[in-house]
């Protein structure tokens, strides 16, 4: 077999193994290692490339952001800031049709800015928002669909683990990726709120519910006490990066310290919960860095196989336009999204398409936002749909099936696709803050 054929077979083998349940970094690392061995018929070369992959990836200073932002998000979650923001949003939207759903989107957008995890958002708001919506007679499918749809905001609104992973693969600045994610994340949140209003106006049976008129308006003092800690944390982290006062690593460290002080001031942090946050941070960090290491040797394997160049020559030979390349890219991500998680999609697809995008003079920061938003749609689509599985597991309610969660999330996946098309058509939306 030629190197190109081995490379193509390895990509197919990786997708197959992940779909069969093999741990993602193991599938990426083992298949890439064996492929390099077969291509060069040299075991020592494969071993040396593996050592280089470890040294050139997780040993980089930039990846100190991973444990810092992870720890910050876990402390914020344990401090109860998510439920506070939800209370304020619910009070503001209490008389609007679908208002609690809109409040869930708004709270998720704010919560995403201090957690960076769609899984954390799905878990928190499944417990906080869904029971409230059911209490006011909302359609159960709509209730879980809102939580599933808005939970993906955690992966695009910075700080985001997926933006960090992309920044490594594409060799882009983590700080620039964070800043570029702000406008698309807010766009998606506004689009969700508009979609809920539209569904409430034209498809009232799907939304259901009644105005939460008995939901008391919160006094300004209580609104301030519930929102200022979160807004202050967002200001410290994103403001520090935007002004250049803090690097992403320093912003992560500062944010972790501020989050810890907030939790201590609210008396929600005990030695037990602090230890649990540290352990969970270690587990999440280890899994992400293991994934990045495996992705590094995978990228080297693709380079040795010459697969990106072959793909580029194929598309150039067919005179494929920018529009056609983006259609192929998005369709590929949507298809893989039904099988794989977001990180896997980024690590498998991006190294193949980067050599095509760079010669066009397109911004790789913009391309990263397109990649993350496109891959995030997979969190809402069967059969994998990680956010949907998390919501179902967290609720543990026999009245709501996994099918209900997927069907409820379907309109929000459609909204994400519309936003993705707008971001592709108007790259300035992603780069506005950077210019």
From TrEMBL:
Keywords: Cell inner membrane, Cell membrane, Membrane, Transmembrane, Transmembrane helix, Transport. GO terms for cellular component: plasma membrane. Residues 13-429 form the TRAP C4-dicarboxylate transport system permease DctM subunit domain. The gene is siaT_14. The keyword Cell inner membrane applies. It is a multi-pass membrane protein. It holds the Pfam family DctM. The keyword Transmembrane helix applies. One of its GO terms (molecular function) is transmembrane transporter activity. It comes from Shimia thalassica. The chain crosses the membrane at residues 12-38, 58-77, 98-122, 142-166, 178-199, 232-265, 277-301, 321-354, 361-385, 405-424. InterPro entries: DctM (IPR010656), TRAP_DctM (IPR004681). PANTHER family: C4-DICARBOXYLATE TRAP TRANSPORTER LARGE PERMEASE PROTEIN DCTM, SIALIC ACID TRAP TRANSPORTER PERMEASE PROTEIN SIAT-RELATED. This is TRAP transporter large permease protein. It is found in: Cell inner membrane. The complex comprises the extracytoplasmic solute receptor protein and the two transmembrane proteins. It comes from the Bacteria. Belongs to the TRAP transporter large permease family. Part of the tripartite ATP-independent periplasmic (TRAP) transport system.
